[in-house]
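ugh ok fine here u go
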Amino acid sequence: MQRLIALNQREQAILTDAARTEDEQVDFSKFKDTTRQLLIELWDAPDRMLSHEQLKEYVLSDEKAKDSTIRKTVERARAELKNYPEFRYEIKSVWGIGYRLIRREV
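structure:
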């Protein structure tokens, strides 16, 4: 029970990070297919995190994929994001929960 409370508190703390504005538009077409799909899924969930299981289903369309596949996909997406400094968001790992998209510190 204490672990659930700790996870909930951690999740609530992360949710208070700077999020995108509702009217903000981003062109995802410049990103590679898997990165684009990952970013779109994270973008469409601005107020919550997505778990490994959710990302396996949404991005890879394969619930049987290993967690390491998602980690590698996120790693590649982060590397690709470095090529686009105008994209003001980064993928944040949430230990024990999954990932979310947050505004980059300037």
